[in-house]
Amino acid sequence: MSGAKRDLAAESWAFALQVYAEPGVGAACLRLQAEAGVDVMMLLVAAFAAARCGVVVSPLDVQQMDAVCRPWRERVVQPLRALRVALKSGPAPAPSPGAEKLRSQIKVSELAAERLENDLLADWLQCKAAVSSAVAIDDLHSVLRDVVRFAMERRDGQAIVEVGATIDEIAAVVRRISA
């Protein structure tokens, strides 16, 4: 864009919603979240950075991204998620129609909290310079692996090889919609 500042928050949020809605991606992201402790918003913003901004985030960048959003994620996003999940099966009066209505309201709040996390990460991304306009598929895979590796290092998880197929699935979708 000539002279105009890009609205990376809106662009990255739209990108995240588009990628997540693709068949298999939502389930893949939730698998990485549950099994490896991956922050899905960080993963999707890192993918956006590479695919749409030409920014290949490094392992140090992933640490910086985490430092930017960790307090929000830990104090707001994760407690909302835990509450929503808990209402799925109990305690009493859940599960019930009333508890499900509350659960749906919390889900809306959780999504709003994730959007605010996206905004934090987009602000961080605004300061990064693009390395090129086109990022190679290997670079995209590297970015996604770095985010997953960072999460797994913070939590004893399975080897990166065990989540490789999930990373490949997400990278393929990102590449296809960014072509």
Distance between the termini: 19 Å
Report the order of strands and helices.
HHHHHHH
Shape: globular
Number of strands: 0
Number of domains: 1
Helix/strand structural class: mainly alpha
Beta content comes to under 5%
Residue share in helix:
over 70%
Rounded radius of gyration (Å): 17 Å
Number of helices: 7
Low-confidence stretches: none
Average pLDDT rating:
89
Please give the largest β-sheet: none
Describe, in plain words, how this protein is organized in 3D.
The chain has 179 residues and is an all-alpha fold. It has one domain. It has helices spanning 8-21, 25-36, 40-53, 59-89, 97-126, 137-154, 164-178. Helix 2 (25-36) packs antiparallel against helix 7 (164-178), helix 3 (40-53) packs across helix 5 (97-126) and helix 3 runs antiparallel to helix 6 (137-154). The protein starts with 7 loop residues before the first helix and ends with a helix.
